[in-house]
Every structure is written in structure tokens, then in C-alpha cells.
Amino acid sequence: MKKLTKKHVLAVLLATALPIVAIAAVNYFSIDAEVIVTESNLSVSPKSFSIEIPRGQSYTKKITIENTGKEVEIYFEKVVEGPSPDKISISFHDTYGNSITSSKKLRVPAGSEAFPSKTFVNVHIDASKSAEKGIYKIYIQAKG
Fold first, then answer.
1. Domain spanning 28-143 has what CATH number?
2. Above 70 in pLDDT, residue 53?
3. Where are the domains of the chain?
């Protein structure tokens, strides 16, 4: 068996470091999101968020819906603006992973001013590998 020399060790280190450098060169792009609610007794936080996400990756943001009124059922609509908006996919899920759609609404329990109910929603953002880099804006609206 051959003894490892400094040259061999250096070659191994370089061979393992090069893929790391290549991974670091992934193109990121910026997404700014704004969340709006139309029901007067509901509030959402955060009302907006910004992320940097690489192509081909996913990001999940948890938002909180507070209700100070009677029980309501809501769903979310979204608009994406940017260089290739069709390459950005957005979906909404409850804490159990169930999809929230206009035909499968999220039930938000009743609350009061003193004790608002809190419901959590996960916003899933997927960026296609073919998404153009640039700045994207996402507008999310909670509707009853």
C-alpha cells in the first residue's frame, strides 16, 4: 500500500472543495411577499416577508391568522410578478399539511378582542430550476 504524501492530501482536498465552490455559485433571486386579508375580524402576521431563494429550491413561510370575530372559512389567492412568474409555484397548507384551496377552505375558529383565535398557515414557495433570476413580488390575499 502506498503512503499518502502531502500532494495526495492536497489533491483530495481540492477534489472535495471544488464541488462546494460549484454549489456556492447557484443563482439566487429575491422574492418580496405581501399578505392581505379581506375579512374585517381577521389579521395576519407577518403582513409581508422577503426571501432569497435559489432556483430549483423550496421555501416555507409560516403565517399566523388571528380572528376576533365569529368562525369563518377562508382560502388564499395569489399573484406573482417578475421575470418568469409561471416558474414560481405557491401553495397553502394547514399545520397538518392539508392543502387550502377555494373548494377546500381553512376553518378559522371564533375569537374575541381579548382572546383572538390563532391559526397557522404554511405558505410553500417553489422556484423552478428554469426560473429567471431577478426580483419577484408575490401578493397573497386571504378571502372568505
1. 2.60.40
2. yes
3. 28-143
